[in-house]
Amino acid sequence: MMKLKPSKSTSRASGWVSLGLLSLVICALPLLAGGALAAEEGTEPKQDSAWPKTVVGLQATSLARTEFEVAIVQYWSLGPLLRAEAVMGGHNVVTVVNGAFYYAYDALTNSGYRIRRSPEAIARDATRERPFGMQLQEILEQGGEKVREENFEGVAVDVYRVTDDLGRRTLWVRKEASHVPVRLDTFDRARGRTGRLDWINWLAGLNIPESFFMPPADAKLEEFDSYEAYIARLMEGPVPPTRPLFLDLLSPWKR
């Protein structure tokens, strides 16, 4: 059994949690393993009149690993709405993306921040099939190419790769229209570290209310009118609970 050492990246005084592993794997490009599971027979996802009938609730789990760390992230989505939860340094860090705003807060302290998303990020919502698990689109936009086809644990997959100044990302995706990722291996050139992100359990057709994609009404949130305003505030000190995990949903040109 793996023995994990106490985290040294969490400041109890400020509530700030370092990205650590997540900055290497999740922010670089998440990966995914496993197949989508159908909803229970006879159940229909709750639809809001504003959503197309093709919009369904999704849930997935990712497992990220480096040589030193392991992290699990849970994702839920309904159309462009996203909720993600990651336990970091003993804190449950929740990310919510809903319309014009990007929220991040600590579920233990019920505090965090809200950043107004850029118009470019909001416009890109309409181009995504889902707000997470879109690694193939990202790799292709970064100049990646298909390098081979193979069988991955009994599943037919295509393998894509991109190599640049940041390092190397190799992505396995299912040979199907949804291009569901199976695995992403990363190499961070600056740190000389490798990481692996696998996705386990895809559930589709969930009944998820839109209220699930909002922070608690009594959450104490520091508000920023733009990503640039948030960065300027960082010059004064950390903004708990942690830096944004999903920059492409906040300001896609800030990569």
Q: How would you characterize this protein structure?
A:
With 255 residues, this protein is mostly beta strands. It has one domain (27-41, 52-242): outer membrane lipoprotein receptor (LolB), chain A. It is 11% helix and 40% strand. It is built from five helices and 13 strands. The protein has helices at 21-24, 119-124, 135-141, 227-234, 247-250, and strands at 36-37, 57-66, 70-78, 81-88, 91-98, 101-106, 111-116, 145-152, 155-164, 167-174, 181-188, 193-206, 220-224. Strands 1, 2, 3, 4, 5, 6, 7, 8, 9, 10, 11, 12 and 13 form a 13-stranded mixed beta sheet that branches. The longest helix is centred in the last third of the chain and has 8 residues, at 227-234. Residues 1-14 and 28-53 have low confidence and may be disordered.
CATH level-two architecture: Clam
| Amino-to-carboxy terminus distance | 37 Å
- Classified by CATH, the class is Mainly Beta
Dominant shape: globular
- What is CATH's topology name? outer membrane lipoprotein receptor (LolB), chain A
Provide a short characterization of the protein structure.
The protein has 255 residues and is mostly beta strands. The chain has helices at 21-24, 119-124, 135-141, 227-234, 247-250; strands at 36-37, 57-66, 70-78, 81-88, 91-98, 101-106, 111-116, 145-152, 155-164, 167-174, 181-188, 193-206, 220-224. The chain has one domain: Lipoprotein localisation LolA/LolB/LppX (outer membrane lipoprotein receptor (LolB), chain A, Clam), CATH 2.50.20.10.
